[in-house]
Input
Amino acid sequence: MDDRRYRAENRVHWDELAAHHPETDHYDVDGFLDGASTIRSLERTELDVCDRRLLHLQCHFGLDTISWVRDEGAAHATGVDFSPTAIETARELREAVGLSVEQVRFVESDVYDVGDVIDEQFDVVVTTYGTIYWLPDLAPWAAAIADRLAPGGTFYIADGHPLAGMFHHESTAADLRFTYPYFNEEAITEEIDGSYAGWDFGLEQQRSHGFAHGLGEIVTALVEAGLRIEFLHEHPWSFFQRFDAMVEDEPGRWVLPDVPYELPLTFSLKATRN
Output
């Protein structure tokens, strides 16, 4: 795979999206500025960040990064993203909510290169929802996580389940349409003028490249980087309307009705550096 080209095109694509996403209903920036936390109940239940220093990888424009400090009690959070537009917006939002750079810091960097721009270690490293799909290789990702974790520190990820990623968005309980691979063999290249947050943005760089990563690949990469898995949980709901036929059974949790057995649609994993 041509990893360098894929990552470069993804960076341009996401830099354009970062200019549009803050204006969408999906992100509800006005609600955030009025005090609404963007941390979901799953992370709040499974991850304690109170009084801990946190590194947030692939933070986009920083809503969760700020929420970890403002609403969840982290002592400090550093958000990292490869989009300069996203980082600029994140810094503006930090100022808007009245937090200092000592409390929340934002750094522009590719996730693979985070060790080149940040030299300290953290109590917690976190990445959530729609992140590793954009990474062609999980070995350097896991190595970067282990390198930035202090001994005894915690890594946490919540994301779409790899099985759910195989199906077309028009799938129903009666017609689960296999469209995408489970195993990471080649890039999934698409040209779309928009994202999960909206359409018809007028993007110049509509081409993006995703990568399928099975649970075995994810766990193995982290273990080989020296982390010890604490838990791997699978959840029968999606964090967004992955399929058109999905309904929201409670805020932020989408399910596919009429399936005879529940499907794993989201996973969460917690690991520790020895």
